[in-house]
Amino acid sequence: MSHDPAGSHDHPHPRQPDIEDGPLTHHMALTEAVAALLQKKGVITGEELRRTLEDIDSRSPADGARVVARAWVDPAYRERLLEDVNTAAAELGIDTGNIPIRAVESTDTVHQLVVCTLCSCYPRMLIGLPPDWYKARAYRSRAVREPRAVLREFGLTLPDHVEVRVHDSTADMRYLVLPRRPGGTQGWSEERLAAIVTRDCMVGTAVPVATGG
Question: Would 18 be classed as within a structural domain?
C-alpha cells in the first residue's frame, strides 16, 4: 500500500471515544477569551485573526516531509535541523512561526515518540493540524505510561533492544521526529523520499516504508 504525507496507512488507529465531544476545556475557553480580548483592545483585528487561522489550516504534513527528506540526503542540513528546526525549515521557504520546534532523531537503537500530555500542542505550522487521536485523553496518558503498547495498536512493534523515548510538547516547545531513512532508498530523489514520510512518521507512531520498488 502506498503512503502519502497526509498520514494515511493500512491499519486503524486506536478507538478514542472522548475526542472533542464535550464542552470547552479550560484551555480552549481561555484561548477564546484571549482572542476576544486582543480584538477588543485593538491588538489584532478579526480579519487578521481569520487570515492567521486560515494559514494554519492550510498547512500540510507535506512541508514536514520535505524537511525530513532533505535531512536524509544532506548531512549538513540534517545537523542544522537538529540544531534549529525553525531556521532549517526557513531554508526551504517554510515559515514555522515563533514557537521553537526541536527535532528528535530515531536511530537503530532509539525510537522517538511525541505527545502533549496537557492538551494538543503540536508543530501545526510544519506538519498541519493534529489528528483527533493525538488530542484524545487515552493517547495523551497512555503514550507516557505504556508507549510500546500504544505503538503496537498503531501497527508498530519495535524490537526489545530499541529504547522508546517520549517527548512532551508544550506551549513553549514543539517536537518533530526525524525518522530513520528506510533501507532500499539509496539514489531516490528528495521528492520520492518525501512521499513516504507521513504525518504519523513525524509524530513517531509510524515509520517510513520504502514503496514502489
Answer: no
Beta carbons within 8 Å of 26's beta carbon, 6+ residues apart: none
pLDDT band for position 8 (cuts 50, 70, 90): very low
User: Is 21 a domain residue?
Assistant: no
Q: Which ranges constitute the DSSP H helices of 16-175?
A: 26-40, 46-58, 61-73, 75-83, 85-91, 124-127, 132-135, 137-145, 147-153
Other beta carbons within 10 Å of 200: 27
Distance CA 135, CA 170 (A): 13
Domain span holding position 53: 26-58
Distances (CA, A) of 114 to 4, 76, 123, 174: 20, 25, 11, 9
Nearest residue to 138 (alpha-carbon basis) of 55, 29, 16: 16
Name the residues annotated as catalytic: 116, 119-121
Q: Are residues 33 and 130 in the same domain?
A: no
pTM score: 0.76
Please write the tens of the pLDDT for every residue from 97-142.
999 999 999 999 999 999 999 988 999 999 998 999 999 999 999 9
Q: How far is it, in rounded angstroms, from Cα 47 to Cα 138?
A: 36
Same domain, 196 and 109: yes
